[in-house]
Write a structure and sequence with these properties.
six-stranded mixed beta sheet; 10 helices
Length: 252
């Protein structure tokens, strides 16, 4: 087996007496789509924010390509090959779709100030155009992102995460608020992006999502969290047949 792309070891984070994440460990292999699910309050968001560099864990280790990144911030992680989307859209509503993608690629190169006042293309236009075609949003490429439907903005948001050709993409509820008719299309797109590299690199994904059908269809393996701990890790078939998982979700 290859060395893991992402390795999380005994991660812990508490807020006062509340242990939000309690000794979580898992690995993500190169090219893998890894899902994280669990009831509300299970610690998924705290885990994700730790991996994104938005909060610093109390203890434990997060390694990317064998390097300890536990204390790095979002910008440093971006420069090391981590792309991300958030549950709340991060598009610039007054900029065109194409310019949103270009700004996203500039993100790992400097500050927000430098990105906002950089040349409109910055030599990234061809890469943006290629992703626009891949995401099938060419018909809205020159429209302001804020004028698009929520589902279209979600596609733009995901496309932005791939502009830097990341090794790892962290997707926080990519289907949240999306019309059910578009959910299958997002799954198909992510499978295609995982199967065929966007540039010189092939991305792996970690996905948090409440839509169980989406997760089961998309992910190679799934981790179930309950009360800050790992309840189970396995293939979709293994998770579907796990009585502890069913009890956690259904209270059976």
């Amino acid at each position: 087996m290859n060395a893991p792309l992402l390795k999380v070891t005994d991660l812990k984070k508490s807020y006062g007496a509340i242990q939000a994440v309690s000794g979580v460990s898992f690995e993500v292999q190169p090219g893998e789509i890894f899902g994280v699910i669990g009831p509300n309050g299970s610690g998924k968001t705290t885990l994700f924010n730790s991996m994104l560099g938005q909060i610093t864990p109390d203890s434990g280790k997060i390694e990317l390509n064998g390097h300890d990144v536990s204390k790095l911030g979002p910008l440093e992680l971006s420069r090391k090959g981590v792309g991300r989307t958030f549950q709340t859209l991060q598009v610039f509503g007054k900029m065109t779709v194409r310019d949103n993608l270009i700004v996203a690629a500039q993100e790992h190169r400097g500050s927000m100030f430098s990105r906002m006042f950089a040349p409109s293309d910055s030599g990234l236009g061809a890469k943006a155009d290629a992703l626009i075609e891949r995401f099938r949003i060419g018909h809205v490429a020159q429209l302001k992102a804020g004028t698009l439907s929520y589902g279209q903005q979600k596609l733009v948001d995901i496309a932005m995460a791939f502009m830097s050709e990341p090794d790892l993409v962290l997707l926080d509820e990519p289907c949240a608020g999306v019309n059910p008719s578009l959910v299958g299309g997002i799954a198909t797109l992510l499978k295609d992006l995982n199967r065929v590299p966007t540039g010189s690199k092939k991305s792996s994904f970690v996905v948090i999502e409440h839509n169980m059908d989406f997760v089961m269809d998309l992910c190679h393996r799934i981790m179930v969290m309950v009360e800050g701990k790992v309840l189970a890790i396995g293939t979709p078939a293994e998770i579907r047949g796990n009585k502890q998982v069913l009890d956690a979700y259904l209270g059976a």
